[in-house]
Design a protein that fits this description.
- The complex is a heterodimer of chains A (about 150) and B (about 425).
- Chain A has helices at about 20-30, 45-50, 80, 95-105, 130-150, and strands at about 5-10, 35-40, 55-65, 75, 110-120.
- Chain A is an alpha/beta fold and about 150 residues long.
- Chain A has a single domain (about 5-150), classed as Rossmann fold (3-Layer(aba) Sandwich), CATH 3.40.50.
- Chain A has a five-stranded mixed sheet.
- In chain A, helix 1 crosses helix 5 and helix 2 packs across helix 4.
- The chains are: A alpha/beta (about 150), B alpha+beta (about 425).
- The interface of A and B includes residues 45, 88, 89 and 98 of A.
């Protein structure tokens, strides 16, 4: 049976602050209620769309480049995402942007979709996470859990 | 009279795997230069493999590509087994064909629906296709998922599978696990047939290219893992003869090596070559589906590659159902392969074409040399040859239309630039 609520972590474990979305999954796994599951995002758009399509409620946790000071937590919903510029559409493009655009076109996005993103500053291969992002991880995990367990559908 | 220059440029090709560019130049009405430029940085996989254990090769080479990791694993394990003089049969051999079916399905379907079909319909991308042809895109997404699920079931995960090893599989999937996939694969076979019918309706530019097709050919099967390397100009060699007959070389405008038949020139691997050299190896009902879609037994129109890919998806679904119906778990799931002071070669059929690998194992039991020749490297010169034909024939077109047609022409061959740019030959010149 498909879960009602899903938290999806986006990122790369070995590219500095980009690991934040995956780190949060480890932090909330033990605290997640029974009807919530927690997955690591697929790396291509169609596969990521398959992970979230037609679910009741999805929270995506990611790391953003820009949009605030390093460590700041951004909250985006479907409406604010539509305003973002389109991503490069090749295999090295943004799987999340592609999945959301396809899902929107096909009308199969989750009934409620929230993206939480911590603003990062280090994304190089093998980089350590920056102190600002590391310090923000506990709040990011708490915010993700709050969003996922919030029953308000507005 | 001043000469008039006209240039068609695409700085970042979209809807291909990896990073490349296109450059076409006319001068005074004459086509003067055509280049498929690949500028993705080299990735040095062949150097990375040196000093590693032979058993690590399938896991390291799988990382070359997220779309076709199985192809890299298959060529690697077959090369190692050839070096050891080991031949595997029975259920292990069937499982290898089966996981390859999964890869052909997911890779071809991704290309057909998400990357290539928008070209034929004059749409910028798959998102727009989803708006105008929602049911068709939904079918493509579900079909791709069926291919990924097959890879995951056998390989442990859909991207960069971890269950393939030299000598077989770390653990064989249970009969029950594979049989549970049958209903979705039955659906997939029907969806694949609908895909063939759909792509056959697309408006199809007509060009005929005099390719030298190169593909594997097996005594009885449509090829995945085994066979001799044959060509439409008479080649018929064992995989270990690849370096005797073919050669790689550098061109200034590409970080991926080009390849040619020695003393002859360009050739083409991939679906068009596989199909044209192995039409008689397809089951009769699939041959009929191809005929119904307007294909003959040989296809030299690169734009029709989208139909050939759909035929291969249909074959892969059919073959997967056949293998699963007869499957019994192999016991054991792998045979030990001991390697020391040996050389092994193998070629298998990646979705994009022939993938050749060669390894030399030193007397310390470690990889001393590795060579990997992916299909996109081999196809670059033929892709450029197509561009010459398309650009020369499209002189009367407006720039935007000609640019779109040239991009479509490149996508005919589903180039995987990330795969192609792993070469080792780095030269540093200092004054």
């Amino acid at each position: 049976m498909r879960p009602r609520i899903r938290v999806v972590g986006v990122g790369h474990p070995d590219r500095g602050d980009d690991a934040a979305g995956l780190d949060v999954l480890d932090r909330i796994r033990a605290r997640a209620p029974a009807d919530m599951d927690i997955v690591r995002a697929a790396s291509d758009g169609p596969a990521l769309l398959a992970q979230i399509e037609s679910l009741l409620h999805v929270v995506i946790v990611d790391c953003a480049r820009g949009g605030g000071a390093p460590g700041a937590i951004l909250r985006l919903d479907t409406a604010s995402l539509a305003a973002l510029p389109p991503a490069h559409r090749h295999s090295h493009g943004n799987a999340l942007a592609e999945a959301l655009a396809l899902g929107e076109a096909l009308g199969c996005l989750p009934a409620r979709l929230t993206i939480l993103a911590v603003v990062g500053e280090r994304f190089g291969i093998g980089d350590a996470m920056s102190p600002a992002v590391r310090a923000a991880l506990p709040s990011l995990a708490s915010r993700a859990l709050e969003e996922a367990t919030c029953t308000n559908t507005g | 009279m001043a000469l008039e220059a006209r240039t068609i440029k695409v700085d970042y090709l979209a809807r291909v795997e990896g990073e490349g560019a296109l450059y076409v130049r006319f001068r005074d009405g004459t086509l003067e230069d055509v280049r498929l430029t690949i500028f993705e940085p080299p990735r040095f996989f062949e150097a990375l493999l040196r000093g590693r254990k032979p058993g690590e090769a399938p896991d390291i080479t799988a990382r070359i590509c997220g779309i076709c990791p199985v192809a890299y694993q298959m060529s690697a394990v077959h090369a190692m087994e050839t070096a050891a003089g080991v031949t595997l049969g029975g259920a292990i051999r069937d499982l290898r064909r089966l996981i390859y079916c999964g890869e052909w399905i997911e890779s071809h379907v991704l290309h057909i629906y998400m990357l290539h079909a928008p070209d034929f319909l004059g749409l910028p991308d798959a998102v727009q296709l989803a708006r105008t042809h929602g049911d068709i895109v939904r079918r493509g997404l579900r079909l791709k998922k069926a291919g990924n699920a097959l890879i995951e079931c056998i390989g442990g995960r859909a991207i960069h599978p971890v269950n393939v090893r030299v000598g077989g599989f770390y653990r064989a999937p249970s009969r029950e696990a594979l049989r549970a996939m049958l209903p979705e694969l039955e659906w997939a076979r029907e969806a694949a047939l609908e895909t063939v019918r759909f792509v056959a309706t697309l408006p199809m530019p007509t060009i005929e290219q005099d390719y030298e097709f190169v593909a594997l050919r097996h005594a009885t099967e449509y090829p995945f893992n085994e066979g001799r390397i044959v060509s439409s100009k008479g080649l018929d060699i064992a995989p270990h003869q690849w370096p005797d007959v073919f050669e790689e070389f550098q061109v200034r405008h590409s970080t991926a090596l080009h390849a040619r038949v020695k003393d002859r020139g360009n050739y083409l691997t991939g679906p068009l070559a596989r199909y044209s050299l192995n039409f008689d190896r397809l089951p009769a009902h699939i041959q009929q589906a191809a005929r119904d879609a307007g294909l003959g037994p040989v296809c030299r129109n690169p734009f029709q590659s989208i139909i050939v890919r759909a035929i291969e998806v249909l074959f892969a679904c059919d073959e997967a159902l056949r293998i699963i119906a007869a499957y019994e778990e192999p016991e054991p799931s792998f045979l030990p392969v001991d390697l020391r002071d040996a050389i092994g070669h193998a070629a298998t059929e990646a979705p994009r074409g022939l993938l050749y690998q060669r390894y030399r194992i030193g007397d310390d039991g470690l990889i001393a040399e590795a060579r990997i020749v992916p299909p996109t490297s081999q196809n670059q010169a033929s892709i450029e040859q197509d561009l010459w034909t398309v650009a020369a024939g499209g002189q009367g077109m407006a720039d935007a239309d000609l640019r779109a047609r040239c991009e479509q022409s490149i996508r005919n061959h589903d180039p995987c630039i990330s795969c192609a740019t792993h070469f080792l030959d780095l030269r540093v010149e200092r004054a």
